[in-house]
Amino acid sequence: MMTYALPLLVAILALLSVYISPKAKAEIGFFQGSSPTGTTPTLLTLVLSQVTTWIFARSLLNAAILGYYYGIWGTLAYTAYYLSFLTGGQIIDALRFKLGYNSVQDFLRDRFGNTGTRCYNFVVGLRLVSEIFANILVIGVLFGAEGSSAYTLAVIAFAAITLTYSMLGGLHASLKTDVMQMVIFLIVLVTLAIIVFSSSQIQFIQLFDKPFNITEPGPILLLVAFLQIWSYPLHDPVMMDRGFLADRRITRLSFLHAGWISGLCILVFGSFGILAGVHAQGSESMNDALTRILGEVPMLLFSATLVISAMSTLDSTLSSSAKLVAVDMRVISPTIQNGRLVMLVFMLLGVGMVFLGNKDLFSAVAVSGTAALYLAPVIFVSLWANQKYIPTWSYLSAFCLAVTGAAIYFFESSGHTTWLGDAHKYTKLLWITLIVLLGGFAFFLFGHLMMKAEKTATTA
């Protein structure tokens, strides 16, 4: 049944998305999401768009896999990343409404010159490509084994479908399709949750099967999440872009409501992985365990949620890619045609990574999240404290340290190196995160003290 149902679902979603996607007629709609009449998104539209663009197919699968291996603590660790909506809302409020900047790049250019924007654009570009790669990868795995003809066809077809309707209307079209896709996603997720928790084999208490142990991977990853959520939202252009679309009240509320709704969705979906881990037999995989205890229809719904979330995330990611290159980086003229060309390039990069890149889904999150840690002192010192006396070398040093940490984690988690010993990869990630954060703040502190000393000497 799933052989025919999933392709049919993709086809229906694609047709609906194309049908409701208005073709862009002006650059302001394509890049900034305004309607043809110039109106901004409503609170409901913005909330649903925020939620659906952060409930990636990869995120859902990660939450379930972490629950399968590490119980409730693994799923909670991934859910904790959704506190980024709360920190992200505060970042946008300070950046846009208190300091009056029109983009993250404008702020960084003002404080750190071209070095500030170049470093940031590098991390953001890495984030966008990893999003495209990871979500398309999930779709390929749903349709067939890696390397099979079904896998390859699913990757190429899904990429082509999403790219086609994304090109039609840019960010404005993405906002409209996000609402439709999110409503369908919620209906499917609620239906799946009712089926799962009404099963005679499932008991709610089973979610707490694994006790808390601070030395286990789940709780350690939870600590990592609490450290990374301060910088994580600033390096996500999809979230940041939606912070510049509406007035202050709607923007604040959209981040608040998107936070608890998306976190709840991730927690619910991750619980399916927890239950699969409780009932797994021998070396049984998560999907095999779920299929055995639930049956084919719930597993079809399980796969459907991944397909819907992948499609809703990809169109928003492509829209942000176009805005990044044409508007924020100013590499090319911000025309609709150029925006579509950028979308094509980013999609090709993402698809290329599916066939050539690392297949560890969490690595895609952790690598970009670790690289973004250099933004933590920027947020605390330069943004929230509005401290202007920070030299560019402090910013650049923090950036280099974070990128080095991200590279080390990538090689360690992929098994290419064992520089950090034989500890679990999340333990390594925790130590890397702590070192990058402490080092970044140290660079900012020393730079600030040096600038103050120089200024005092000059005025004396």
Give a short synopsis of this structure:
This protein is mainly α and 460 residues long. The protein has helices at residues 2-20, 27-32, 43-54, 57-70, 72-80, 84-98, 104-143, 149-197, 217-228, 237-241, 248-279, 286-294, 296-328, 336-356, 361-371, 375-384, 392-413, 425-459. The longest helix is centred in the middle third of the chain and has 49 residues, at 149-197.
List the topology elements.
Layout: H1 2-20, H2 27-32, H3 43-54, H4 57-70, H5 72-80, H6 84-98, H7 104-143, H8 149-197, H9 217-228, H10 237-241, H11 248-279, H12 286-294, H13 296-328, H14 336-356, H15 361-371, H16 375-384, H17 392-413, H18 425-459
Helix pairs in contact: 1-8, 1-13, 3-8, 3-11, 4-5, 4-11, 4-13, 5-9, 5-11, 6-11, 7-8, 7-13, 7-14, 7-15, 7-17, 8-11, 8-13, 8-14, 9-18, 11-12, 12-13, 13-14, 15-17, 16-18, 17-18
